[in-house]
Design brief:
Blueprint (H helix, E strand, L loop, with lengths): L1 E2 L2 E4 L2 E4 L8 E5 L4 H28 L7 H10 L9 H40 L5 H17 L5 H52 L3 H17 L5 H28 L5 H20 L4 H17 L8 H27 L8 H32 L5 H30 L1
Antiparallel strand pairs: 1-2, 2-3, 3-4
Helix pairs in contact: 2-3, 3-4, 3-5, 5-6, 5-7, 6-7, 8-9, 8-10, 9-10, 10-11, 10-12, 11-12
Length: 415
């Protein structure tokens, strides 16, 4: 029995060859030739419906490129599909559709390459950033955008993958090393805190309340400047440390209050007298007796000012100023004698000239350092109260050093 696209021979159904394919057997006659032919024609119609369904899916979906492999598999299967019909137009339609999809995929991959190169630039810009938390989030976001971006042409794939991942790796390796370093530093810092607690225990056990208090003041300053450790490890140490220091201070206060106490006006009067005495020593020629008297005055002053009257600020600054004049003069004498072996044999006028010259150099150095400190203070402003207090004290101390030297220089000039 003949058919436009096949025939029956020896009870077998043949499909005519097409596209350089030979005739091939696609089945056998089961009941009769007419129903067999009808069966294979129906199979061909089913195949056409399957192809039309695929075309519709491609048309209606945005991600058309995702249907390429399905189309190719379907197209290849037509050469072996058992049915009677004209396969050539179907194959030609699928070939055209394949070209269409491949063009879409090519354009998509070009766009994907552009997007991924942009992501690489973003990653490169961030890879050396040390804002670990925010940058880590940005890097993770870049990775998600990378994953969601479709593939690129194979010739570029390995290169851009390696470049992108290398940038991410630089950041995350840097972050890893940073936090590993913090962990190691924290372990060292914990040892510092533990040692300060040990010193606090020893001070607490010291029967000398004043000596214990001096240790307490020193280690409390050291505690403030010690490095960071995790709060859960620092807190138990702080609890013990603060409790010990509070007890040391309470004992010291009781000890100080147990002796005779001057009234505030009496204390101020005594401080004024001692300041006047220190001022006289500051104006006197430097000698061992003057230095010894100044040291005794300082020791007495320290005992007297354990509890400072409210209005004693100016007096205390004056006492400190003239104390520094005394010891600056001593330092100046030593410096002059070290620079000039025959300094003591020189005329008094020459001695004053040498001292004045030395002082001018020292003042220039101190003023330069003071200017640097002020400049650095402007550049490194912070909201931390302890830092601001420390900075003010440092500036005040340097300014006083300059004022002391200028005071002595003026005194030398007036002689």
């Amino acid at each position: 029995m003949e058919h436009p696209y096949g025939y029956i021979k020896d009870n077998k159904v043949y499909l005519n060859g097409f596209l350089n394919q030979p005739d091939r057997v696609i089945g056998e006659v089961k009941e009769d030739e007419a129903s067999t032919i009808k069966y294979f024609e129906d199979r061909f119609e089913t195949l056409k419906e399957k192809i039309e369904a695929l075309k519709k899916d491609i048309e209606e979906n945005q991600n058309k490129g995702s249907f390429l492999m399905k189309l190719i598999h379907l197209r290849d299967s037509l050469l072996e599909f058992d049915a009677l019909g004209d396969f050539v137009p179907l194959i030609e339609d699928l070939d055209k559709l394949q070209v269409y999809l491949e063009e879409i995929i090519k354009k998509n991959r070009e766009r994907n390459l552009e997007i991924k190169r942009g992501l690489i630039l973003e990653a490169e810009a961030l890879k050396n950033d040390t804002d670990w938390k925010n940058t880590a989030e940005e890097m993770k976001n870049l990775k998600m955008r990378w994953i969601k971006t479709g593939p690129v042409e194979k010739e570029f794939d390995e290169e851009i993958e390696n470049t992108f991942n290398a940038a991410l790796e630089v950041f995350f390796e840097n972050r890893k090393h940073y936090f590993e370093g913090l962990a190691l530093q924290a372990e060292e810092n914990i040892k510092v805190y533990e040692d300060l607690v040990r010193q606090a225990r020893e001070a607490f056990d010291n029967p000398d309340a004043k000596a214990a208090f001096e240790v307490s003041k020193r280690i409390q300053k050291e505690w403030k400047t010690s490095g960071k450790v995790p709060a859960e490890k620092r807190q138990p140490l702080w609890d013990e440390f603060s409790k010990l220091n509070n007890r040391i201070f309470s004992r010291f206060r009781r000890t100080m209050q147990s002796g005779p106490q001057l009234k505030p006006w009496e204390q101020i009067k005594k401080m004024e007298e001692m300041t006047e005495e220190m001022k006289k020593l500051a104006k006197a020629e430097t000698n061992p007796e003057v230095i010894s008297s100044a040291k005794k005055l300082q020791a007495e002053w320290k005992r007297l000012t354990q509890r400072k009257p409210k209005d004693a600020g100016l007096i205390m600054r004056s006492f400190m100023f003239f104390s520094e004049v005394v010891f600056e003069k001593l330092f100046l004498n030593k410096l002059a004698n070290s620079k000039y072996a025959d300094f003591r044999e020189k005329e008094e006028v020459e001695q004053r000239r040498i001292k004045a010259s030395i002082l001018k150099d020292l003042i220039y150095r101190d003023e330069s350092e003071l200017a640097t400190i002020k400049e650095n203070a402007e550049n490194f402003r912070t909201n931390e109260e302890d830092f601001e207090i420390m900075l003010r004290r440092k500036l005040s101390a340097f300014k006083r050093k300059v004022d002391v030297k200028n005071y002595i220089l003026k005194e030398l000039s007036n002689k």
